[in-house]
Design brief:
The chain is an alpha+beta fold and 287 residues long. It contains 5 helices and 8 strands, in the order H-H-E-E-E-E-E-H-E-E-H-H-E. The longest helix has 28 residues.
């Protein structure tokens, strides 16, 4: 009964949202732009980024894992412009990412995780130009990878036999998940940027499509409201856009990650995901 009630509420929200959206937007290009929050037709400059850092894990609010060393790379296309003011630089990008987490040595009876993770990601940042040409900037960004897959294994299953059995039965092998990353970067001079980031990835034991869709729709509505707020700020106070965008966008995405930390398709009563918390540094080259 609880599942049916939650599903009914989410369905009504989805139908109402779609109806309003179609009624308000008749231009296909605008619909795609609002849906993806990314001007794909304008992504023209290739870029690549390499990352390195450390990853911690939790499952069902239980730490019990050793840290992993994680390396990654992203290949894609992007663009930059000055939407709100000549001193505020907007960067959009999208591409393919690949990350490898090397399991650490098991200590104190803790479990260890090894994984290969790949998928699609999109990023958006606003930055403050540090010179007149705009070739140097301080960038505050938000990224999401809603289509993520990981190949997981557990070299050490840890001392907790109940958790060990769940990890092996639920997550061993190929699993679907989602990621979100908050980042701060410094573009030294085109094309080189240095940055730091925090990424929260959640891997699901199975892909429950309808629950995932409804949960994602609630997040999408929240994101759309957040985007409109950022645009409103940009019209009246362009200088505040990078900070407000960073706080609003990452607040929404990380907030939903927190809500799903122990049930993968919140607000539906579903199983807990495996949570990855990655802290990294990165170097980006834009060509």
């Amino acid at each position: 009964m609880k599942h049916l009630l939650s599903l009914a509420i989410a369905t009504v929200v989805l139908v109402c949202t779609c109806t309003l959206h179609v009624g308000a937007q008749t231009d296909t290009t605008k619909v795609m732009k609002n849906t993806l929050d990314l001007k794909l037709v304008e992504l023209e400059k290739p870029y690549m980024a390499v990352t390195g850092g450390t990853t911690t894990f939790t499952f069902d609010s239980k730490p019990g894992f050793v840290n992993s060393t994680t390396f990654g790379a992203v290949f894609g296309y992007g663009t930059s412009n000055t939407e709100f003011a000549s001193t505020i630089i907007q960067r959009n990008s999208g591409g393919l990412h690949l990350h490898y987490s090397k399991a650490g040595d098991s200590l104190g009876g803790k479990a260890s995780v090894e994984s290969w993770r790949f998928g699609l990601e999109v990023s958006k940042s606003y930055g403050y130009a540090l010179n007149e040409a705009g070739t140097s900037s301080l960038d505050l960004g938000s990224s999401s990878a809603g289509l993520n897959w990981s190949v997981l294994s557990f070299p050490s299953i840890g001392a907790d036999s109940a958790i060990a059995a769940q990890l092996q039965n639920r997550f061993d092998g190929l699993r679907f998940g989602e990621s979100a990353r908050a980042s701060i970067g410094y573009t030294i001079a085109e094309p080189v940027s240095l940055g730091v980031g925090f990424e929260w990835t959640q891997m699901y034991e199975r892909h429950m499509f309808w629950y995932w869709l409804m949960s994602g729709t609630i997040e999408a509505i929240s994101s759309a409201i957040g985007n409109e707020f950022v645009k409103a700020v940009g019209k009246s106070s362009p200088w505040a856009v990078p900070i407000i965008h960073f706080i609003v966008r990452n607040g929404i995405t990380m907030g939903f990650k927190a809500l799903r930390q122990n049930q993968m398709n919140w607000p539906f009563d579903t199983a807990a995901p495996l949570n990855f918390f990655n802290y990294s540094v990165n170097v980006t080259l834009r060509f």
